[in-house]
Amino acid sequence: MGFRFRALALLCVAISMATVPIKAFADVTAIQSITVPLTATNFGVNGAPNDPLVFNQFDPTLGTLQQVNVTMQYDFNQQISMTFANPATITVTAGNNLIALERPDTTSIFSATPPTFSETVTYGFAPGETTFPHTLNFGPQNNHVSLSPVALTSGSDLAAFTGPGTIALPLIASAVSSFSSTSGNGTGSSTTMAGATVTVQYVYSPTNAVPEPSSMILLGLGGGGLMWGRRLRRRLAQV
Known about the structure:
Blueprint: H1 2-18, E1 28-40, E2 53-56, E3 63-84, E4 88-102, E5 108-112, E6 117-123, E7 134-146, E8 150-152, H2 155-160, E9 166-169, E10 171-181, E11 187-206, H3 213-238
Antiparallel strand pairs: 1-11, 2-9, 3-7, 3-8, 3-11, 4-5, 4-6, 4-10
């Protein structure tokens, strides 16, 4: 009886191993990155020049696209200059800052608003402040930011990124400069430079994938267990 019980227990273990849910195929990734160096704004907005980032689409012959992961790091640098022609208080502001990455249909993938850069200076009233014109420069104010990754999984996104060609993602950067002075003879301006690195990662299930090693081991153990179980049943039937 003890032998029969042990044999049945081992048979149950073998069958359970053969029926454990298995992830038969591993997801595969393909990665592309494009870097846009620091470029004077504005670009890509309100008719300003723009060269979109062009990525190769996912080749559907490789398998089924499951997800598109997009990451973006950007640099947003600003400088301010002001010139006094006579005693005055001058304020120069570089604001309404924007950097964004869009889909081809202009909906947003990333959108960020770098901080405003502003300087106010009073010159020409204190003793010794008699040199005119007098120019002051400030900055650059540097912003290097890594945005949180975005995972695109909707049917429309997967369809847009799949095909034999390319997909163009517009990169937008803009800023607005404002100037004020208590004297009509002063001048002021700001300069904004923006750049970014965008990475697109395709996560897909390959068409002719090879089973994972762990899956093959489990299948082998399960099959061997079932064969051994059949032999045990024959022996038990003869007892």
